[in-house]
Design goal:
The complex is a heterodimer of chains A (258) and B (307). Chain A has 258 residues and is mainly α. Chain A contains 11 helices and no strands. The chains are: A mainly alpha (258), B mainly alpha (307).
């Protein structure tokens, strides 16, 4: 009985994704049954829609840079937080975890006011900073436990053999946390690439990120089929990446098991 | 092995190595960064809410609680009511998501055995696809000539063109989409608790004559409550500030508190009033965190090898 329930819930979870893919191949502007016939024109339309592709490129770049910055910031903060004596540890922990609970809309509004206060225009750079801010707690939560579970004896051995703290970190600690760094970067990229709330407040006119463009497209019937077509590609790609990353992570962690 | 470990403990542990004076300063970049892009903007929102900052023409820049007074009862009540209905849908969604996810977690922890890891990934994977795209997919399913209505027409269950009106632009649609997007994620904390449960306790209960139902309600369920509450809070907190699902599948009467905030900063700009609503939202979320925070195992001071 539980197995049956599980199957039903899995169908419920995947049905909307299947619907999106089915209608991406439907030869009609209006997504309704019966199906109007098979076509791939929405895919070619989507890929020749420069605004759509432009927004996708923007989001890819912001996502990649945000992933690198958030992971770097997460790593150095995590190393700092392993310090045995750390003043204001409680306040620091609260500060770095706060972006997890504060609604994105409040963050977005705050950054909009900040830009206004500084006399600056809305810019993609502000979107990037916002994405780094919301990603850092996730990166930290992935990297810090990994640092804490490293076998101390290995690092001690490196130090005993004459390695400086920096060399020991670079040659011993760093390689051992690489899987966590990949996981952290992947999460940060996913958050940034999909992030709508902050971006919708901060993107400059005419330079939407992919989610912002998708939102506009979803309210424009003529664009909707293209959104579904490119959306199907994005959804399938992310399912593949998530699965591959998970397999990679378990294998890597098993290999590095300490 | 044990000798080596204890010897290394006698020398210096990794923690001590890393705590050489100056290691803690590595947290400074993150502190400054978050203060600048996160905390300071919250202060600015606070200043806007009491008119100490304003960008409205003709509004004097001086301390005033006028916006607060019109929001909090006995004010004009429009947005206070919006807040209340928003919290009701949030609570309903949180409870339903937990109830729906529990059997899945139970199945994965106790029935699925060797395939549990694959099946968990199967359930979680949709959560990592674009939220916005999933909401749009639901719009295709629920809309007036969408999948559900057109199937009803094809089957002759309803007159062609006569769609079920509450399917979209309604609280039903908003609730369904939020429920859908949280169920997989909510299964995770419950699964973790069940997975780590001492199964000897369950065997003991059965040895002492408890039936399967009795074992579940007297032993399994109470022991899994920390995971259940964590799951509940995992939905509750983010949904409190939700505004995307109502934008796409909600109607004028089924928009949430987040939409009110958004409208005051975009469509009908009144940043001062919007700032009051934003401050209120922060206050509510912080109260929730203080109430339930101990159930969320994200405490970095305590966190050990859980992943």
């Amino acid at each position: 009985m539980l197995g049956g329930y599980f199957v039903l819930l899995a169908i419920f979870l995947y049905a909307p994704l299947a619907v999106m893919i089915i209608f991406a191949f439907d030869d009609s502007f209006v997504q309704t049954l019966p199906w109007s016939g098979f076509t791939t024109k929405w895919f070619s339309n989507a890929f020749s829609n420069e605004e759509l592709i432009g927004s996708l490129e923007r989001s890819l770049w912001i996502g990649i840079v945000a992933a690198i910055l958030a992971t770097l910031l997460g790593l150095i903060t995590a190393v700092g937080m392993t310090a045995r004596k750390l003043r204001f540890r409680g306040a620091l922990t609260a500060l770095v975890l706060l972006p997890l609970v504060i609604p994105y809309i409040v963050l977005a509004v705050g950054m909009l006011i900040l830009l206004n206060w500084l006399g600056l225009q809305r810019t993609l750079f502000a979107v990037l900073l916002g994405h780094v801010a919301v990603s850092v707690p996730y990166c930290l939560l992935i990297i810090l436990p990994r640092l804490r579970t490293l076998d101390q004896a290995i690092v001690d051995a490196a130090r005993d053999l004459g390695a400086s703290p920096w060399t020991a970190f670079r040659r011993v600690t760093l390689p051992l946390v690489v899987p966590a760094l990949f996981a952290s970067a992947l999460i940060a990229f996913t958050i940034s690439f999909d992030e709508f709330a902050i971006a919708s407040f901060l993107v400059p006119p005419g330079e939407p990120t992919y989610p912002v463009y998708v939102y506009t497209g979803a309210r424009t019937p003529a664009l909707q089929p293209q959104i579904l077509a490119l959306g199907s590609v994005v959804v399938v790609a992310s399912l593949v990446i998530v699965t591959a990353a998970e397999i990679f992570r378990t294998r890597a962690e098993r290999k590095l098991a300490v | 092995m044990s000798v080596a470990t204890s010897a290394s403990h006698e020398r210096t542990s990794l923690v001590e190595r890393l705590s050489t004076p100056g290691r803690g300063w590595l947290t400074l970049p993150a502190i400054f960064f978050l203060l600048a892009v996160f905390i300071f903007p919250l202060v600015l929102i606070g200043l806007y809410s009491v008119n100490l900052l304003t960008n409205r023409f003709g509004v004097p820049t001086s301390f005033s609680l006028v916006n607060w007074e019109s929001f909090v009862p006995p004010g004009d009540n429009v947005f206070w009511d919006r807040f209340k209905s928003s919290m009701v849908i949030t609570l309903v969604v949180s409870v339903l998501a937990v109830v729906a996810a529990y059997p899945v977690a139970y199945f994965l922890a106790f029935v699925a055995r060797r395939r549990r890891y694959t099946l968990l990934l199967l359930i979680l994977a949709p959560f990592f696809t674009s939220y916005l795209l999933r909401v749009i997919a639901w719009k295709v399913i629920l809309s007036n000539n969408g999948v559900i209505n057109s199937v009803l027409w094809q089957l002759g269950l309803r007159e062609h063109g006569d769609g079920v009106t509450w399917l979209i632009y309604s609280w039903f649609a908003v609730g369904l989409v939020l429920f859908y997007s949280w169920v997989p994620f909510v299964a995770l904390p419950i699964y973790v608790v069940l997975e780590n449960m001492d199964t000897r306790l369950l065997e003991a209960a059965q040895d002492l004559g408890a039936g399967r139902l009795r074992t579940f309600f007297r032993v399994t369920l109470p022991l899994s409550l920390p995971g259940v509450i964590a799951a509940f809070v995992f939905v509750l907190i983010p949904t409190t500030g939700e505004f995307i699902a109502p934008l796409l599948v909600g109607g004028p009467d089924s928009s949430m508190f987040g939409n009110a905030i958004q409208s005051f900063f975009q469509e009908t700009p009144n940043w001062n009033y919007g700032a009051v609503l934003a401050m209120w939202l922060i206050a509510v979320v912080l109260v929730l965190v203080l109430l339930f925070g101990r159930f969320l195992s994200t405490d970095l001071r305590e966190s050990k090898a859980t992943t």
